[in-house]
Amino acid sequence: MSDKLRIGIIGLGFIGTQKHLVGLSQHLDRCDMVAFCDYEIDRAEKAQKEYGSDDSYACTDYRKVVDDPSIDVVHVCTWNVNHCEITCAALEAGKHVLVEKPMAVTGEDARKMVETAKRTGKKLSVGFQYRFRKEAQFLRKVVDEGRLGEIYAAKAHAIRRRGVPIWGVFTDKEKQGGGPLIDLGGHAIDQALWYMDNYEVAQVVGVVNYKLGDKPEGNMAGPWDPETYSVEDSAFGFVTFKNGASLFVEASWALNVQDSREGCVTLCGTEGGADTVQAPAGSDLIVTLNNVQGGELVKTHPEAAAAYFGAGGDAMSGFEYMGGLEAGAWLDAILDDTEPYVTAEQACVVTEILDAIYKSAENGGKPVVFD
Ligand SMILES: NC(=O)c1ccc[n+]([C@@H]2O[C@H](COP(=O)([O-])OP(=O)(O)OC[C@H]3O[C@@H](n4cnc5c(N)ncnc54)[C@H](O)[C@@H]3O)[C@@H](O)[C@H]2O)c1
To answer: Hey, what domains does the chain have and what are their CATH numbers?
Structure first.
């Protein structure tokens, strides 16, 4: 291994460019971006021109990157349905892999990825960058200080009132495996499980709705095409854990509610609770801690509103801020040989829950029981 980690990026669409390239470019003391791969060669070449090392190249076949012995690390930023295939091929070829969320479409594929990483001894992490948001880091500290006590009930909120993405392949079930649940729901579930530090699922029930796909009016980004809209518009799940705790999951791109509440959690513990809601304007999240003090019910907020993404008012975009922290932690884990900030095992449980909500819904809401 050379001094710097040599990285190949597969998939140079929205997240590949806006988070991974921008994030890694903040750590060029420790890495070089060497291979740029996308079905669309123009995308790969554009990225290489802007971010590539002197010996970098662009290509359309991911196998070229995976088979390149000079590459240490692969970032998989392709559509959900091929995360498992590309990740496993890269791990088998001896690369460390950071794969975008969701880790995979099915629990079976996610488990295969965990097993492959273990067997090959390579590191595997998943792009749940919301853990690096200001408010998430704050809440994590509050939990670590024991201020909520034992968190035994939680909610993962991933609700947009009308926020169907009309670009990319988000509404294409064949490429993504699902809609708002697999897209937004995973982030919120990841956060809730991480705060609870609870990854032993007992069972899951779910409901998935296809009610508003033909009603594209009122959408934030403009109307979607009902002809190509093939995913659910909302989904709900209820997860019980082996220690008796529970998690309610709600995810939508279109739901007739008053407020959107995306990437938010409600945590209820024996010593106190916490919740996050979206501020009425802008993208800040308001964190509230709820407990009893001096015999009275008390709500407290940090004095400085925790910016949704980064430090309030700084010039960085959210993905630039979170992507820089995510990439830094990932490179540290490889270079220091420590556990990644988001472990493959944790992300696998998120995918198992998502998959179980879809499977339960397909079976009329019957519970999916975990071993
Ligand atoms: N972490 C986040 O917050 C976040 C945000 C958006 C998207 N994502 C995830 O990132 C992934 C990509 O989403 P996106 O919005 O960037 O999609 P996108 O369509 O904008 O980009 C995906 C790119 O991958 C390329 N591609 C697909 N399969 C390929 C293959 N086998 N070989 C080479 N190139 C291939 C496509 O040509 C496309 O350019 C998805 O899994 C999505 O869930 C994560």
So the answer is: 5-130+322-342 (3.40.50.720), 132-310+351-369 (3.30.360.10)
Spatial distance between the Cα atoms of 169 and 304, rounded to a whole number of angstroms: 37
16: pLDDT strictly greater than 90: yes
The answer on pLDDT for 277 being more than 90 is no
Look at ligand 1, atom 19, and give the residue with the nearest C-alpha.
168
Distance 347 CA to ligand 1 centre (A): 18
Whole-angstrom distance, CA of residue 21 vs CA of residue 142: 32
- Would you state the torsion angle of the CA atoms of residues 112, 115, 120, 121, taken in this order, to the nearest 10 degrees? 140
Does the Cβ of 116 fall within 6 Å of ligand 1? no
Among 40, 41, 75, 100, residue to substitute to test ligand 1 (most atoms within 8 Å of Cβ): 100
Q: Using CB atoms within 10 A of its CB, is residue 258 exposed (0-12), middle (13-18) or buried (19+)? A: exposed
In this predicted model, which residue has the larger pLDDT, 305 or 326? 326
Would you say the CB of residue 80 lies under 6 angstroms from ligand 1? yes
Residues whose CB is less than 8 angstroms from the CB of residue 42 and which lie 6 or more positions away in sequence, other chains included: none
Summarised one tens digit per residue, pLDDT across range 208-226 is 999 999 999 999 889 999 9
Q: Tell me phi and psi for residue 327, to 5 degrees.
A: -65, -40
What average pLDDT does range 71-95 have in this prediction? 97
